[in-house]
Design brief:
The protein is of the alpha/beta class and 288 residues long. The chain contains nine helices and eight strands. The protein has helices spanning 2-8, 42-53, 72-89, 104-109, 138-141, 166-191, 209-215, 224-232, 262-284, and strands spanning 19-26, 60-67, 92-102, 114-117, 122-124, 206-208, 220-221, 237-240. Strands 1, 2, 3, 4, 5, 6, 7 and 8 form an eight-stranded mixed β-sheet that branches. Helix 4 (104-109) links the parallel strand 3 and strand 4. Helix 2 packs parallel to helix 3 (72-89). The longest helix has 26 residues, at 166-191. The protein is elongated. The chain starts with a helix and ends with a helix.
Length: 288
């Protein structure tokens, strides 16, 4: 009975230690997503962040990052939302790297007032990559003629069914350089004088957490539970903030007209497969 009554008291009146809200950001970063393959993006992350930063008594929010990267736009949006909430709610942000915080994953990690990694974590990969496939001969082999009509000479830049053009590649590289510059500016702004002068820091290379600390990419080595107890006492506890669930334990689906569900499900399944392949390729870059 005493335990039940204790739970009814506001946290500030309890004597069971500090509660630190924790969020787990896991997966490739991409817009959209589906019921078969939820994506890591601002739309999926924002409700968790709002809930975590709303815990008034908490002096900090702990965020676990485990991502090989993905969309630079979504990465920066998540980063910015974390920083905006941290300043608005006056809370410290502790980022904990699990297996990997690389590329866009590291961009999100920059939102932390401190970044703590496992010694064997992978961090860095401060660069920009684009990839695709070319099929200029495929249509001929299967007897298909492709017809494209445009208004604007550059509407078919990087068309995978046409031979690669040097000017198209140069244009893509110019976009990549702009994005890379933004990434570098973010790293310098957040890590400042902590960064070493290693010539490869912004080259796209990645390192272990131990080496990342030497390079100034992370602040320390450790794990979330141990670090929280070290900072806030042995009685401190983590409260995992999770997505809302329906009555049956699933995310609330959108409404569907009777008899029209099969086609959207099939389309979602195909999209999920493509996203899974793309995500697998991102993780594979880091041997994971």
């Amino acid at each position: 009975m005493a335990g039940f009554l204790k739970k009814l008291l506001p946290r500030r009146f309890r004597k069971d230690g500090q509660t630190i809200p924790a969020i787990r950001l896991h997966g490739a970063i991409m817009a959209g997503g589906s019921q078969f393959r939820p994506a890591l993006n601002l739309a999926t992350v924002a409700p968790l962040l709002e809930k975590a930063f709303a815990v008034k008594e908490a002096p900090a929010v702990a965020i676990s990052v485990n991502s090989p990267g993905g969309s630079p736009v979504q990465s920066r949006l998540i980063y910015q939302r974390i920083r905006d909430l941290a300043e608005e709610k006056k809370k410290r942000v502790l980022i904990f790297v699990e297996d990997v915080a690389a590329s866009g994953g590291y961009m999100i990690a920059l939102a932390g007032d401190e970044i703590i990694a496992d010694p064997s974590s992978i961090v860095g990969s401060i660069g920009v990559v684009s990839g695709g496939f070319g099929f200029p001969e495929l249509l001929k082999k299967i007897g298909v003629e492709r017809r494209v009509y445009t208004a604007g000479e550059n509407k078919v830049v990087l068309d995978p069914f046409q031979p690669e053009k040097e000017r198209d590649v140069e244009f893509l590289k110019s976009l990549q350089l702009d994005i890379h510059d933004t990434f570098i500016e973010m790293v310098k702004a957040r890590r400042g004088t902590l960064l070493s002068d290693h010539p490869d820091i912004f080259s796209g290379l990645f390192w272990t957490g131990r080496r990342g600390r030497e390079l100034g990419l992370v602040d320390g080595l450790g794990d979330m539970r141990g670090e929280v107890k070290r900072r806030y006492g042995e009685k401190a506890r983590l409260e995992l903030i999770q997505p809302s669930r329906s009555l049956f334990g699933r995310r609330q689906p959108g409404a569907a007209v009777a008899g029209s569900l099969a086609s959207p499900l099939a389309a979602s399944a195909v999209a999920g497969l493509v996203e899974a392949i793309e995500e697998r390729a991102l993780w594979a870059r880091f041997g994971l």
